[in-house]
Amino acid sequence: MKRVFHLLIGFLLLSGVSASAQDAGFFDVNGDVNGEIASNLPTSGPKKDLKPIEFVNPRPDDIFWQKVIYRVVDLREKMNFPLYYPEESGDGRQSLFTLIFRLLQDGENTGVYAYEYQDGREVFSDNYKLDFVKDVLEKYEILNEPIIDSLTNEVIGYSVDESDIPNREVLKFYMKEVWFFNKHTSIFDVKIIAVCPIMQRETDIGMVKYPLFWVPFDMLRPYLAQQEVLISDRNNGARISLDDLFIIRRFGSYIFKESNVQNRNLLEYNSTAADVHKEQAYIKENMFNFEQDLWEY
Asked: Which tens digits make up the pLDDT trace of 41-55?
């Protein structure tokens, strides 16, 4: 059932890409290069009016089974290059972290906010909401210039040059997701809850990893749907949005934690890399078997 559902979603996404290419392609109806995008190759034009595909959240009473899974998305994997590149925005494209950074920078207008990273729990309430200037720009020493109001001489914002966004230092993301079975629709599905960029920075004591903050995924989706990515070097027409990429799960990742009574990650109860790999395989197999067992008679 899940495979049928994903095939249907894939068909709809491909249909949307095809329609998009016709509506805002490189050429107009006369066969001339579309003037709106002539200087913006290889993207297919503005996407500001696109909206994410709407999914109806299940009712609590319909959730028969669920499990929270934490993953690491390593942007150095070739499959994840569309999330990392370009290192500096250009041709209408930008990396996932750069997009998140700019949305947080203008949080009052975008409605996208960051929440404190805590080891072992995630709380998305106002008490844990971060101040972008204090908790991001100043804490991680990101170069910026204050924007001064010409009339009042007050600081009304901060400007960060494209080259100063630490995109090259963000090589991984944590991802929190929940797998669930909806007994009302008989669908075994997954929902991404939040993402957390991880910055790796060279210090006096060596390379240090900084999980920066959590951002609820639903806050990002309206903007992910408007951001195109190239998924093929061979065909620049194979364009999907960042939102599409996550919906069809076209990214590589590995499990580092599942919900458990003691709230431990895999490294805390596995002593070797081989043991961690066995536990990851065990978790994936259990989830696969659960889905298959649902349809045994």
From this structure: 555 555 777 888 888
